Design the sequence.
């Protein structure tokens, strides 16, 4: 039975949802993808079969745990954001490419880089900006609330992407719209330098 346009869109929506989740936490969505592939519930592109191995599962579990804990250490969380921004772009690209199984390589990698990496970078950039503002306004006290929200968002968005890719994609679009609106509002309300 030939594949329809809808069949091609499902892995793209799945990839974008997972990529957005890597913008909240780099390793947690990759761990979830690894677990789903290891249990046979998620087919991966053949070049990414390594993600479904026990070794990848263990490595990603350790990395995810270390990342989660590090975001609760004052000062380290802001430093981690500078590292996580480019890492999220790479992770978003890789996780998107891993789940797009039936598109030609040129289309797959273009989609993975632009949609996956772009969404991951935008999500991470918005959360880094939010954490920086929290650090300034609360002295870092509010950062643990942001870390918990990001962790929950990454977990829920990853699971939603696996269960209902198009709903996850709609959530990603809504989150990006809200982030853009909040950033625009904060730049308008910022004091303007006097000439």
Sequence:
């Amino acid at each position: 039975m030939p594949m329809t346009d809808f069949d091609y869109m499902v892995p793209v929506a799945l990839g974008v949802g997972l990529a957005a989740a890597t913008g909240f936490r780099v390793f947690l969505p990759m761990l979830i993808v690894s677990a789903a592939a290891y249990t046979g519930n998620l087919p991966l592109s053949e070049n990414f079969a390594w993600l479904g191995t026990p070794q990848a599962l263990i490595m990603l579990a350790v990395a995810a745990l270390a990342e989660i804990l590090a975001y609760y250490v004052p000062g380290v969380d802001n430093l981690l954001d500078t590292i996580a921004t480019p890492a999220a772009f790479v992770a978003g690209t890789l996780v998107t490419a891993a789940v797009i199984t039936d598109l030609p390589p040129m289309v797959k990698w273009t989609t993975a880089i632009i949609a996956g990496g772009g969404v991951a970078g935008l999500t991470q950039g918005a959360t880094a900006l939010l954490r920086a503002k929290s650090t300034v306004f609360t002295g870092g006290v509010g950062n643990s609330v942001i870390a918990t929200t990001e962790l929950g968002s990454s977990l829920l968005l990853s699971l939603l992407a696996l269960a209902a890719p198009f709903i996850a994609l709609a959530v990603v679009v809504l989150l990006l719209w809200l982030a853009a609106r909040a950033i625009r509002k904060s730049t308008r309300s910022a004091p303007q330098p006097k000439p």
Q: What stands out?
A: The radius of gyration is 17 Å. Residues 23 and 120 are 4 Å apart (CA to CA). The mean pLDDT is 89. The helical segments are 5-24, 27-38, 54-70, 76-99, 105-138, 143-163, 165-189.
